[in-house]
Amino acid sequence: MFIPRTTLEQWRVLQSIVEHGGFAQAAAALHRSQSSVSYAVARLQESLGLELLAPEGRKARLTEAGRTLLARAEEVLEAARRLEGLAATLRQGWEPEVRLAVDAAFPTPLLLQALARFAELAPQTRLQLREEVLSGADEACIDGSADLVIAARVPEGHLGDVLIEVEFIAVAHPNHPLHRLGRPIEADDLRQAQQVVLRDSGRMKPRDEGWLGSPRRWTVTGMETALSMVAAGLGFAWLPRHLIQARIEAGELLPLPLREGQRRKAPLYLIFVQPELAGPATRQLAEVLGQTVNRT
Questions:
Q1: DSSP conformation class of 222
Q2: Counting beta carbons within 10 angstroms of the beta carbon of residue 204, is it exposed (0 to 12), middle (13 to 18) or buried (19 or more)?
Q3: What angle do CA 196, 200, 205 make, to 5 degrees?
Q4: CATH number of the domain encompassing residue 29
Q5: What is the per-residue pLDDT across 150-183, written as a single tens digit (0 to 9) for each?
């Protein structure tokens, strides 16, 4: 069995000497005597049979071998730091992993802001993120494949709070035939045009939602794909305002002048899948999501 002849402590001392520019400075930073710092480096070099530091005036510089080995040692030191951080997290009862399922209509910029903050607060907790459409988020609650869910509905047997309300707008390319009608658009007009819709990602009980009156439908799996198709003039769709506002302002998309139903609002709920088992990391993520939304 392999037993290392060097220790993490010795490598940390060498790293500190390089970081702080000398033995005395490293000793001060590590709250140790200078003699103990010198001894640690001497033992390290002796164990390896290599010179890692070469004197240069009152300072010491890394040799070529020292530079190569310290670069690898720093990776090991960082891995050790993460390992101990994980142990501290587990000691406090924080989960090593949180599973988050998010309805595709939730604004991506807000999600990224929340996750960046969560990474600061729970750096040792892994995250599994799934984007779902319609009943896919419901199923994440029902089958327990997520710990926290942002969904358009609260499945039976669960509780949830409204996190955000998303506005959907019927839009098409400015040159789309529907815009050339020059009058308020009726449902019969929509039935003659091609509609772009999102496929439900759920498998147990997939559902349809919104107006689906056109027999000419293209079904896609992603919100960005639907947006790209509509922007290319391949159809019309109801899309989230936050996703299309910039394109509307740029004249790349134009809201359809529907006589009724041009806009609709849909709440998204934040749901703890098993609230009685939700740990500190799951609750911290939920809190961060709520804070992020409330700041907008």
A1: -
A2: exposed
A3: 140
A4: 1.10.10.10
A5: 998 898 888 999 999 999 999 999 999 999 998 9
